[in-house]
Design a protein that fits this description.
This protein is of the alpha+beta class. It has 4 helices and 8 strands; from the N terminus they run βαβαβαβββββα.
């Protein structure tokens, strides 16, 4: 599994959650994590989460750190578990920076009632995908939020790269764990 960090801003509107995103845009073939920073505005017609659609919610942030993860298997339940692994990896990387005020609820991170993340898993025709966005700024968000700036994260893309490396290492470690055990009868 590989990752890439885009150094130029890329705004997220939901259309980026498509199969082969990393390959088409960055030449990164196979299971991957793409990390980039930019605004986020997802309107109803690009929403993947039907709960949000039915509630007529929308997602907006002036500045977010985005992760798009793609795995080339078709097991959505496994991908939801991987999504939670990604969220746990983010929390662990923040803890390394001294942030101890966050809690995880399902696939999101909070400081009390202020939400840091948005996250969704879905199927594409050839893969499963995860989008996770972390507010960098919490200005003008439609719900109470907190941002990485509030948490004193200075190097946002460097932080994103550390999360991507951590996640890729975890996925590799799980794959290797399958290879070291013998079957039982």
């Amino acid at each position: 599994m590989n990752y890439t960090v885009l150094r130029t801003p890329l705004n997220y509107d939901g259309t980026q959650l498509q199969s082969l995103f990393a390959y088409k845009n960055f030449g990164l073939m196979g299971d991957s994590v793409s990390v980039f920073r930019g605004s986020c505005r997802v309107e109803q017609d690009e929403m993947v989460d039907m709960e949000d659609v039915l509630a007529k919610d929308w997602i907006y942030s002036e500045d977010m750190l985005h992760f798009i993860v793609e795995h080339f298997d078709m097991d959505l339940e496994k991908t939801i578990i991987r999504q939670r692994l990604l969220i746990a990896s983010i929390k662990e990387e923040l803890e390394k920076l001294g942030v101890r005020t966050l809690s995880r609820s399902g696939d999101d991170l909070y400081e009390v009632d202020n939400k840091l993340s948005v996250s969704i898993s879905t199927l594409s025709p050839v893969s499963t995908m995860i989008h996770c966005g972390l507010n960098v700024s919490n200005k003008n968000t439609p719900i109470p939020t907190i941002g990485l700036a509030n948490l004193k994260v200075q190097d946002v893309l460097g932080f994103g790269e550390n999360v991507a490396r951590h996640y890729c290492d975890e996925v590799l470690s799980m794959r290797l764990a399958r290879c070291k055990v013998r079957g039982v009868s």
